[in-house]
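Problem: given the chain below (217 residues), write out its structure.
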Amino acid sequence: MTGIDELCFDENGLIPCVVQDNATGRVLTLAYMNAESLRISIEKKLCCFYSRKRKCLWLKGETSGNYQHIISITADCDKDALLVRVKPDGPACHLGTVSCFENPVTEGDGPFTYDGLYELIMGRKTEKKEGSYTSYLFEKGLDKILKKIGEESTEVVVAAKNEDRAETLYEIADLCYHVTVLMAQTGITPDDVKKELASRHVIDKKVKQETMRSENV
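Solution.
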């Protein structure tokens, strides 16, 4: 463990903090802390920064409600920068966007993530885009989404039965996409699914332990 007194604050007593969404891996903002705001952040498990413009501490979300719940804080190799992984309650940016980094300087998309796909699909739900198939599904509603899931499930079965690996993979991807649309429609997040799978994993361990005990009796 690295103590606060071991960190290398700059000449103004500040240390830069890269804030990252723990679930999606997306960088949300770059802010600064001093020793006092870092102590508050650790104690409250909420991001507290130092405003270089206002020359004061500020607890993220205190006025907006968009708190950032700290999962972990890690110093870099030189101990002069921090990576703060958080679970955000809302947008990180004062402009209302998920991240402060929304202005591309170079062309090209970032690496694909499932959480990023979910975020994109949610965006098509809240802000309909003309010509978007995803927005079309949301406009048609739950019955249309469920119908597509039924169709895609059948296509997965047919492709797998034909032992066509490429086609099976293609159809599984289609099914995953439509299931993700259903998740967005019903308010289920990737984190919810991860937690459900994790709870089953614990149950499986218990069942295995109980089975081993019964075999040893």
